[in-house]
Amino acid sequence: MADANDPESGWRTRLTAPGTTLAPFRYPAFRAIWGANLLSQLGSMIQSVAAAWLMTELTRSHQLVAAVQAATTLPILLFGVLAGAIADNFDRRRVMLAAQWAMLAVSAVLALLAWLGQIGPFSLIVFTLAVGTGTALNGPAWQASVRAQVPARDIPHAISLNTIAFNIARSAGPALGGILISLAGVATAFAINAASFIALIVVLMRWRPDMPPPERQAMLPSIRIGLAFCLHSNPVRRVLLRGLCVGLGAAGFQSLLPVLVRDQLHGTEFAFGLMLGAFGIGSILAALAVGPMRRRFGTEAVTSVGVAAFVTVLPLLTKLDTVGRALPLAFIAGIGWTACMTTLNLAIQVRSPDAILGRSLAIYQAVTFGGMALGAWLWGALADWISLTAALNGAALWLAAATIALRLFAPMPAPHEGRVELR
């Protein structure tokens, strides 16, 4: 309870009052997990920058550079649904712990091999796939555990704050990664990522959520139940379709950015980090504003505005030749990314019963990040076959056409359509 004579205490209380954006920070479990996850995300972004830039030094192939992004997201497509069933059938805290330990071990081995100079293009992709598999296992359990950290009324704000943490990492992580790579090399960046998992492991080991034990089911029937729910729920099915289309198109920016910086903007690894940092800053600002915008204008309008940001940015990038001019466009793309992804994630969360929440989120992630993996391959192949300009314009054209068609034939769900009561 705030001290009436302490202005700072009263200020903090007002900021975290129930129903406000920062309300989830009133709960110690959420604060601890949020902070530790932020450190882990920073490490992951440093590793992503290091892996992407290392690939540009190992090969001139646009496809292989784009394959680094694909390798990050492909495991979510391949194993995401199984990970969702695991999250619903086992203690979610223990599932997250297992994933964190696995990613720590893989990242440590990657750092050692990079230090020894034993990493080639294909071994880098294999290790990226392994870390992505840990991410796929962790994702559904982590997102579903939000309900164990805050009450129902603060779940939308908790989702937004988790998005902010991710995008703070996207802002600071790339710049730190660029500096680390230029000063100490990629092996140091990989080692820092391995160490970044430790804080979250400690927090999860100490966390004891008050949740009933899950009812165990066999894996295959459990997966079938989750798939059946998503296929038969018309609102959920429409959100999944939107996620697939946005993921496929947005991958044009995400996967080809290293090549764009190196070949067209003539930038260094630090410039690459600055571009990702601008993207992250845009994402943070969008995460703070997307809730009020969604309540005022609706999910369809917010998602369409997010797509419009990419449709505008991708063709304009093909006209530029300096990093300084491209930074504002990366900032706008970050706004578009968060406007889409936060809105789609919440649309799935509020339409999924708790008993199958992990599977619903896993299916959403598998579809969306599967679209990103497919898009990374598609746009990378198009860049090799025709040109980088053709690939970026193709991604923009896809997003514009898909969004217009979906608004007509598969619109986003209305506010109370298919919504479940959260406890």
Helix content: over 70%
What's the structural domain tally? 1
CATH 4th-level superfamily = MFS general substrate transporter like domains
The CA-CA distance between the termini, in Å, is: 24 Å
Strand content: under 5%
Average of per-residue pLDDT values: 83
Helix and strand pattern: HHHHHHHHHHHHHH
Architecture (CATH level 2) name: Up-down Bundle
Q: Helix count? A: 14
Tell the overall outline: globular
User: What composes the largest sheet?
Assistant: none
How many DSSP-defined strands? 0
Description:
The protein has helices at 7-15, 28-58, 62-89, 92-115, 121-144, 155-184, 186-206, 219-232, 234-264, 269-297, 299-317, 323-349, 357-385, 388-409. Helix 3 packs parallel to helix 5 (121-144), helix 3 (62-89) crosses helix 8 and helix 4 (92-115) runs antiparallel to helix 7. The chain is globular. The chain has a single domain (21-409), classed as Growth Hormone, Chain: A (Up-down Bundle). The relative contact order is 0.16. It is mainly α and 423 residues long. Residues 1-9 have low confidence and may be disordered.
List keywords for this structure.
single chain; Growth Hormone, Chain: A; 80% helix
Put the structure in a nutshell.
The protein is built from 14 helices and no strands. The chain starts with 6 loop residues before the first helix and ends in a 14-residue tail after the last helix.
Question: Secondary-structure blueprint of this entry?
Answer:
Layout: H1 7-15, H2 28-58, H3 62-89, H4 92-115, H5 121-144, H6 155-184, H7 186-206, H8 219-232, H9 234-264, H10 269-297, H11 299-317, H12 323-349, H13 357-385, H14 388-409
Helix pairs in contact: 2-3, 2-6, 2-7, 3-5, 3-8, 3-9, 3-13, 4-5, 4-7, 5-13, 6-7, 6-10, 6-12, 9-10, 9-11, 9-12, 9-13, 9-14, 10-11, 10-12, 11-12, 11-14, 13-14
